[in-house]
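The methods section describes the discrete structure representation at length, but only in general terms. The central task, working out the structure tokens from the amino acid sequence alone, is never made concrete. Nothing conveys this as quickly as seeing an actual entry. For illustration, here is how one protein appears when written out as sequence plus structure tokens:
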Amino acid sequence: MPLLATLLATLALTPAPDSARPVLQAALAAHGMSARAPDGVTASFSGVLAMRGQSRGVDGPLDWEPARTTTTWDARNDRIAQDAENTYPVGFVLTYRTVVTPDTGFVIELTRWLQGAMVDRGAATPRPAVRATLLRELGPFWIEHALAHGTALRRLGDERDGARTYQVVSLDDGAGEIAAGFDARTHLLAWLETRAQHPVTGLERTRVTFAGYRSERARAGMTPLRLPTLRVDTRNGVESQRGLIAWTLGAAPPDSLFAVPAGYHENHESTEPLRPLADGVWALRITTGYTAMVVEFDHFLAVMEAPINSALSERALRAIAERFPEKPVRYVAFTHHHTDHAGGLRPYIARGVTVLATPAESAFVERLAAVELPLQPDSLSRAPRRPIFETFTGARRVRDGARELDLYDMGATSHASSMVFAYVPGAGIAYDGDATIFPPDVTDVPVNPLTGELLRAFRDAGIADSVTTIVGTHVGPVPVARLTTPR
């Protein structure tokens, strides 16, 4: 059910388009923004984030990790930038900068840990939608954007929460349908709500609540602005992020913030979907920074890893069918349950491909197969079926003719409660998930704790002397010789 219809059902009222704009105008005045906004606005959020789709446990509880974002809006030149720092299990800290200007947009990784010095322009498109999404991070400053650029404005009536009443409007702000609630007494922005579809958990209603309002001035003599200092996010009613917001108001930010820094280069990554790694072994490009592996047997194929979502897997399966029109995909396996490694399993399940998984991951696959995706139905939504499973512990060998593919159960690691790696005997190629996350443009790679666990698993399996190359979901192929002494 669309967000608008859901809220109407909750409020039991008929939308009134003509009364939505006065609510936004009253909010603009209440926040002190009727006059010209400061040339530069920065919101610095510091808090914790529930790692949905990235926690250690396949069945929960969710890990909470530090999260920081700094969102800067150059109102005079209509430019916006955000630095987002997230921490993942085992201490992976990745910081990405997203920039949108009237003329261009790009994403770079400031830590250069995973993406290196590559400039990803595709991740910042379409620019109007990315711009609107970033402006939502600025809370009250989004209101001016909503008035100037919002379409399909609707007044949805009032929502009551205890003693408080919120005036609710909805609109399309350029990034999709969004609802906003304003305190009926103070007219301050109370919350923003959106609905989206997650490949593993299905339909999600996310509400970002702003509170702790206080007055901030850009400079002496300027009208004080009423800005929030607290933010709490909920997903389907369950808290998913919380933290503090600090504001900096003043002059326009420097041009350097919106330019590609020195040392970065355009994305020259090949867009060829399949690249040979060895006889009968192929790297399967999923998207920027994501690679799966295809192993060709005499009569069928096996795929290792199904990252992110159904749309990307559908595209990957089309590329596989074009390259191997006479051979079906019989097996698919995945390294662990994180969304960026297994969120694309559903199209394989829809085709009757056998999922090879450890017993610890089987319930996860069942849940993923049963989830409803009403906003963007995929092939499994259109023709539901139970997954076909083969579970294994220890090791599982796939063989047909002379080709072999070995899967090894690593058990619990510091990164996930169950992990698997693959090995192709004869080719000397191992495939892993996140153990080989390191900069792609360095010569000697320090071994992080998870990489050390993978190398120990090689020794336990008796293949340490046979593995010459590691293909990682995010990085690879990488010669094992590039790995150095554990830190």
Summary: The two ends are 51 Å apart (CA to CA). Residues 1-6, 8-14 have pLDDT under 50 and may be disordered. DSSP finds ten helices and 31 strands in the chain.
